[in-house]
Here is the input.
Amino acid sequence: MRDWRARLLELGVREVQLTAEIAVRASELQNLSNDPIDRLIVATALVEDAVLLTADEALLSWRGPMKRQDAQR
Here is the structure.
């Protein structure tokens, strides 16, 4: 696992800390599943103004303002 993480960091992937802002945003999301991990992932993408790369159909079809890209395309 450490090797995998190190390779990702070498490629330029940036780790993001879980902040109170992200936690609050996750609790305020509308029309998204109650899965806490999904909510934290979406909230993180929103707070960081990042594009979420995912193959998760629920996250891809969510009608919120998040930027997203289908990982299977």
User: Anything to note?
Assistant: The two ends are 26 Å apart (CA to CA). The chain has one domain: 18-70. The longest strand covers residues 51-54.
